[in-house]
Each structure stands twice: as C-alpha cells, then as structure tokens.
Amino acid sequence: MIIAQQKPIKDIAAMIADCKKVLLVGCAGCVTVCLSGGEKETEVLASSLRIMRRLQGNHLETVTYTATRQCDPEYIEALENLVKDVDAVVSLACGVGVQYIAERFHDKWVVPAQNTMFVGGSTAHGVWEERCGLCGDCILHRTGGICPIIRCSKSILNGPCGGSQYGKCEISKDVDCAWQLIYDRMKALGKLDKLLEIQPPKDWSKSRDGGPRKAIREDVMIG
Amino acid sequence: MKTESKLQKLLDSGHFAVTAEIGPPKHASAHGIRHHAHMLKDYVDATNITDCQTAIVRLSSIASAVHILDCGLEPIVQMTCRDRNRIAIQSDLLGAYSLGVRNLLCLSGDHQKFGNEPSAKNVYDIDSIQLIYLMRRMREEKLFFSGEPIKEHEPRFFIGAVANPFADPFEFRVARLEKKVEAGAEFIQTQCIFDMERFERFMEMVRERGIHERVHILAGVTPLKSWRAAKYLQTSVSGMIVPDDIVERLKKAEDPKREGIEICIEQIKHIRNIPGVHGVHIMAIAWEEVVPEIVERSGLFPRPKVE
Ligand code: SF4
Ligand code: SF4
C-alpha cells in the first residue's frame, strides 16, 4: 500500500494561513492503514489546527469528512456540498487524492497535508518499509522475491556491490543489503547459478521515464 | 581484442603492471593534477582518475585525463553509474575516446549519501556489469547501448572493473568477479588490501576457477599515514577489512608515516609472489608524492617500455 506521513503541522497551517474556514478530507484507504490520514487523524489534525489558530487569536472553522477512497472520482463527488463555502480543502490522502480533489473542484485552493512517500508494508507495529519501486516490469522471480530496484540503494541488477558488508548496505548499518538477502534466499533455494547470469539493462520506459503511465482494461470499460 | 592502451600491451606481454590513482581537486585548476602526473610519469604505467570519488564534486575525470595525457602519462578514466544515464555515459565516453583516453574503469560508484551533495538524485540507470558488457559490445560489435549501429569510429577502450575481496558475501565475491570477466572486463583492480590472508584465500578461489588466466588482476594497496587513518578505514568504511596488527604497528611506530610506507612496500613484495596477480594499483589517497619511493623500493623501477 501507499505509505504517507503527515507534514509538520506548522507547514500545514502556513498553507491555509489566510483561510477562515477549511474542509479537511481524510481517506479510508492506504493512509488509514498507515495511520496518517484516516478519520481519526483527520479529526486530530482539525482540532490541532483550530487550537493553533485560537492561540494566535485568529479563529479557524473546520469541517471534516473521510472519503472511502480519494483516488476514485465517485467518492470525490460526495464532497460537492461540503466544499461550497470553505476557503480551502486540506487533503489527507496520498498525492492522487489531492490531485483528484483539485481536479474536480478547480476553483478551490487544495493543499496536501501529507508527504506521500513510497509503496511498502509494515514490518512491525508502527514501522513501514519500502518494498516496490513501481518499475512496471517486475523481476522478483529472478531475485528470490526481494526487489533490488528499491531495496538496493543503487538499484543494481547484478549485485552485490563492493559496499556490502556483514549483511548491511554501505549507506547505513541499519539498512539490510538487498543483495545479501537475495544471495541468501537463492542459496537456500539452490538457485545460486541464476545469479551468475548477466541481467540486461532495465527497460525504464515501463517505469517513471518522464511521462505519466496509463493502465487500460478494455474488458471492464463501460461505453 | 587489441586496443591502443599501453597498459594492455604491458599486461599482455607478461609485465607486472603498476598503476596509481590521482584524485582530481575540488576546484577548477589542473595545476595539482599536472604536478602529480609529472611526478608519477616514470614510475607508473597508468593512473586512474577517480570520478567524483565518495560522491564529492570534483574536477571531471575525463577533463583530468586530458591534462594527464598532456603530461605524458596514460590515464584510466573511471566511470560511475551513479551520476549519468545511458545517454550521458555514452556521450561522455565517446568524448573521452576522441580526446585520447584508452583505458576505462567501470564502477557503480559510492552512494551520494556520504558526499557533499547528499540531497542529489542518483541515477543508476545501468549497473557496473551492464556498463562493462555494453562497452565491450560497443567496441566489438560496433553497437550503441540501444543496439543501433555505430557507423564509424567506435571507441576501443581497454576495459577494467573493480573487485572487492573484503565485501560480503565472501563466497560470492569470486563468482561476481567471474561475472565481470564474463561481461567483458579485461583488467581488474581490487579494493585496498590490508587483510592479506583473506586476499590469499580470494586468489586461491580465483585460480581454482582459472579466472586469473582470463583477466589481469591488479592488487590494490594503500600507504597509511597514521593509526587513526587505519582505524577510520577499519570502522567507518564499508567493504574494508583492516587487521588490528596494522593499526597497532602504526600506533607503536616512532614515525607513523615512514611505517605506513614500509608496510605498503612489504605488502607489494608479498603480493608480487601471489600467483595470478599481474600488477599493483597504488591508491595513495591525497599522498601521491610517496608513490615513486614505494615503486622504487618495491623493486618495480624502472618501468618497462612497450611499443
Ligand atoms: S521489480 Fe519492479 S515491480 Fe517488482 S517489486 Fe521491484 S520495483 Fe516493484
Ligand atoms: S550494499 Fe547491497 S544494497 Fe547497498 S548498494 Fe550495495 S548491493 Fe545495493
């Protein structure tokens, strides 16, 4: 899922400094799971902003709503009545949600309350780690199910590099060397010989290469 | 394939090669590089020019190489995958060849995290093994990385790579070296060797697989200035092993700098007797002036001449 983290409250406050009334929109999708933009976080953010403004002697009115998903137009529609009389919308979704709201209500000032960070999962309660770089051409079958694109700091496809030591990556003793993990896994699977094959350069045109990507499923398209 | 590299001619004719390293400056003057090039010219067969080593912005490797050539010394241009995509790499290497550079060392490059631009976006479009492979294909099949033909004047570099016997997983290090040779590396320079025992074991595995017959291995050495420098490499540089007795020896020494030079000379003499090693690569980081003495006292002077 998408992992996001709330921006510092002073940054959020600064983006809506000249507003009297704002709508805060949470999302019940990924950001709820990673505890940064669900219903609870939306309420907490709203009251924090109000308190902050009250201390400044500058009253702020807030309205809150949590969409089922902000990355689907149908759930954005529901905001129609709520956005009418607010000066700004603060979205607690990932960057897609912010863009969807801005797109739908194009005369509204829409700001992001979160930094959308990566695609990952939780490894312990309260800890999330990046696991996929959305490269568009998955090669996990060649690397023992461990992604070198995102988990190797240099995205090496023919690793491990000379900085790998004691199982850790050269960038930090807190970061596992993805290639050590790949090596261990392939060894356990009796497939070390696979690692001797020279992996060709990656076709980054399927990844982020400068243009937005699109996925189309004609079978489910309507009309 | 024969290239115009003097280093290749020397190695192919069975000479024990000596290469050194020159680190370009963090400013826009070539004065220091030229000074070092003149100093090293008669003592080494070629010098590596690092490519923004440890991710610190420095005068470009290719520009430095041109100054070095001008001083009558053969450069080995280092190319890292960190800073350039495949368009920039090819363009820069065509340029380097056109300027007279004949040796290329392919590396992935140190991560930018430790350099002076830690907020930079790294590239890593291709990795070092892919770079080796693509450069060899460029030379032998006259193809750009994309597969498009190079109509004329393909760059014919003598292609090198690095190996680190001190990184992990150790058992895979020789396999990875072999993979680099398979990809097209013709010479290998190793990480600085301090742990001789581990290096010997590494070379044993290299010989078992016959890799030393397919590639020229140049063993890396570094003269240390102080026990603190040794300790730093031991504890803070990933992929290095520095045995305690080296740290101790430097600590006890009356003149640690002299002791560092002595250790380095001993290491070279030892390395010369390891079967399968075809040369030494002296990385005197910011201490280039000691290289002539080290070469001379290791019995590697004068350097052989080749056509
Ligand atoms: S190979 Fe690509 S798609 Fe697969 S996990 Fe890695 S980044 Fe994601
Ligand atoms: S140490 Fe491992 S994870 Fe880190 S860059 Fe090198 S190969 Fe990748």
TrEMBL record, chain A:
Pfam families listed in its UniProt record: DUF5981
InterPro entries noted in UniProt: DUF5981
Superkingdom in the source lineage: Bacteria
Methylene-tetrahydrofolate reductase C-terminal-like domain ranges (all copies): 112-205
Region (Disordered): 203-223
Membrane-traversing stretches: none
Name this protein carries in UniProt: Methylene-tetrahydrofolate reductase C-terminal-like domain-containing protein
TrEMBL record, chain B:
Swiss-Prot/TrEMBL catalytic activity: (6S)-5-methyl-5,6,7,8-tetrahydrofolate + NAD(+) = (6R)-5,10-methylene-5,6,7,8-tetrahydrofolate + NADH + H(+)
GO terms of biological process kind: methionine biosynthetic process; tetrahydrofolate interconversion
CDD domains per the UniProt record, alphabetical: MTHFR
Keyword tags: FAD, Flavoprotein, Oxidoreductase
Cofactor: FAD
GO cellular component, one term: cytosol
SUPFAM superfamilies, per database record: FAD-linked oxidoreductase (SSF51730)
Pathway note: One-carbon metabolism; tetrahydrofolate interconversion
GO molecular function: FAD binding; methylenetetrahydrofolate reductase (NADH) activity
UniProt cross-references to InterPro entries, sorted A to Z: FAD-linked_oxidoreductase-like, Mehydrof_redctse-like
One Pfam family of this chain: MTHFR
Family: Belongs to the methylenetetrahydrofolate reductase family.
Protein known as: Methylenetetrahydrofolate reductase
